[in-house]
Amino acid sequence: MDVEERFNRIARNTVEIVTVDELRRLLESGGGIKGYIGYEPSGVAHIGWLVWMYKVKDLVEAGVDFSVLEATWHAYINDKLGGDMELIRTAARIVRRVMEAAGVPAERVRFVDAEELASDKDYWGLVIRVAKRASLARVRRALTIMGRRAEEAEVDASKLIYPLMQVSDIFYMDLDIALGGMDQRKAHMLARDVAEKLGRKKPVAIHTPIISSLQGPGRMEASPGEIDDVLAEVKMSKSKPETAVFVVDSDEDIRRKIRKAYCPARQVQGNPVLEIARYVLFARDGFILRVERPSRYGGPVEYVSYEELERDYAEGRLHPLDLKNAVAESLVEIVRPIREAVLSDSTMRRALEVIEGRVTR
Ligand SMILES: Nc1ncnc2c1ncn2[C@@H]1O[C@H](COP(=O)(O)OP(=O)(O)OP(=O)(O)O)[C@@H](O)[C@H]1O
Ligand SMILES: N[C@@H](Cc1ccc(O)cc1)C(=O)O
């Protein structure tokens, strides 16, 4: 791939790149580029995670030396899985399997355990230096990166360490690119500002879209705030199982959940079914959405691009039920091999049962 092809591969299906020029310069420099994403191993992945997993695949294919940080300590701080570190580590093994089944070339990705970072005194030196350069108000505001509101830091002070650790992870691993969903924006912006003050490499932030809750965004006007704060509230989230399709859901569960999903006729904004079509289904090369419907409703139709689908939907030429059925069937095809990869392994199956019973938020 030449520079342009690499750039396009990295940029497709993203919401923002901070900054595009810096990314171009990195690619043009011809040197090695180090990127990462971190996630909390804290339960079963939902289809929102496929959005970043597909992006990891793009980055690896574009030649980025990529690490996936299994943020075990972060999950502990964030009260996941009852703070059971053994279970948190097990959850990380399951997510690895999910990533492989979703097409991420695992042999070309470095998996890093947050406990390994935290075992180095230099890591903690870095956390303290980062803390010195960040105001308390800014760190509190960054709590959205862990799906919390600023006020929640009052309950338990470890929550304030989390954003500082996330920023330090980036410096410790000496990264050029930090990837995350839009809800991770505050960590990346903080890292960019602190980088200048500490004379560190300023990471390019790449943000992928957030899929809304299946129940819809609710009263969006009632949640004023910056875009990432709002998205953190309305996203499909594993802590709210009724909002999500999980990668281990049965075919019938997927169909049932999509059938019940919020999907007003002609509405594009905040429509989770269209978002799934756009960011999960059409994110795959060569995808075609096939709508089966009786001839009295227009007969079968095929969409080869999201844009065509959106146009027909917005103009009322595609009924919500027909959209839902088509999206559900395609999702079933995507989820099935992932579910089988996880559930065909009896150790994983058992671990999953324990984890599902222990999801604490
Ligand atoms: N609904 C979503 N759509 C797209 N990406 C998502 C979605 N939810 C989470 N992500 C991304 O997945 C990564 C892991 O996020 P996170 O651990 O917060 O997910 P989650 O399962 O919703 O967790 P929780 O419910 O525990 O907050 C982050 O980069 C985040 O941006
Ligand atoms: N805050 C991220 C997890 C994360 C943790 C540490 C990092 O360095 C990066 C990401 C999330 O909630 O998904």
From TrEMBL:
Q: Which protein is depicted? A: Tyrosine--tRNA ligase
What organism is this sequence from? Answer: Aeropyrum camini SY1 = JCM 12091
According to UniProt, the reaction catalysed is: tRNA(Tyr) + L-tyrosine + ATP = L-tyrosyl-tRNA(Tyr) + AMP + diphosphate + H(+)
How is this protein organized at the quaternary level? Homodimer.
Looking at the UniProt record for this protein, which Gene Ontology cellular component terms does it annotate, in alphabetical order?
A: cytoplasm
The UniProt record lists the EC number as 6.1.1.1
Role of this protein: Catalyzes the attachment of tyrosine to tRNA(Tyr) in a two-step reaction: tyrosine is first activated by ATP to form Tyr-AMP and then transferred to the acceptor end of tRNA(Tyr).
Any one GO MF term held by the record is: ATP binding
Output the lineage of the source organism. Archaea, Thermoproteota, Thermoprotei, Desulfurococcales, Desulfurococcaceae
